[in-house]
Design a protein that fits this description.
- Helix content is 38%, strand content 20%.
- It folds into 2 domains: 170 residues, Rossmann fold (3-Layer(aba) Sandwich), CATH 3.40.50.620; 93 residues, Pantoate--beta-alanine Ligase, Chain: A,domain 2 (2-Layer Sandwich).
- It contains 10 helices and 11 strands.
- The longest helix has 16 residues.
- The protein is an alpha/beta fold.
- It is globular and about 55 Å long.
- Strand 5, helix 7 and strand 6 form a beta-alpha-beta unit.
- It binds pantoate.
- The site of pantoate (PAF) has 10 residues, from strand 2 and helix 6.
Length: 282
Amino acid sequence: MRIVTSVAAMQRLAKEFKAKNVPIGFVPTMGYLHEGHLSLVKRARDLVGNTGQVVASIYVNPTQFAPTEDLSKYPRDLARDKKLCRDAGVDILFVPSDKEMYPAGYSTYIVEESLSKTMEGASRPTHFRGVMTIVAKLFNIVLPEVAVFGQKDFQQAAVIQKMVTDLNFPLRIVVAPTVRESDGLAMSSRNKYLSPAQREQATILSQSLRYARKAVLKHPVSAAQLKSEVAKLISEKNEARLDYVAFFDPKTLKPAEQVKRGDQIALAVFFGKTRLIDNAKL
Ligand code: PAF
């Protein structure tokens, strides 16, 4: 596995592969890798085959964190991540510095003005501006044919797909299923922050998804009613504080008034300062 730290070297390598018609599959991450990330690497390998190149990036992107958020505390373990990437068959690991990605005087950002405004975008108003900017930059540096994102960040994947369509990026976005712990908790680098009591109660996210799925099984239910039922379920856990629960059309992200099978649920729940998200198709 090659480790590349400069934008120029990564772009040069990517251009060489392009010239030889070698497809590049790309998995952007912020590191502190877990099984969920490794499933994205495996998917990228399946997509480009053994003759293709799988590129993963590790970069904790400061512009997607608000000043009040956990940027400085975001978990990092590059030595462990390198080993995991090597063992998972990554060909090139791109690990740029802040100076490489945002040199002095940097002033260009990408903003999506529709899908990014609800849910995560409403709770974290500058988040998607940072995500889209860094992802666009990474696409221009890595030049992938296909990029793989996790379904756990459902809205992120939708916003990135919209950017790719709107700005004519010549690549395909693939969304891979959420990988879960045996008790249903979606894998996340942030799970590490949870105290034992919070970790135990964090299964309330996946339980809420199951609750909502069951509720709409036979007939549609009013979104307001279902929101208050999920909120009540979550309020029974003393460590949990609901940020939002939303029901919406999975293609347009338009909120549903009557929630039916096939709609999407997404929610965010705080445990102390740790904020976890999850989602599912109902
Ligand atoms: O999902 C993530 O880990 C990040 O938002 C991403 C896509 C790597 C951009 O920093």
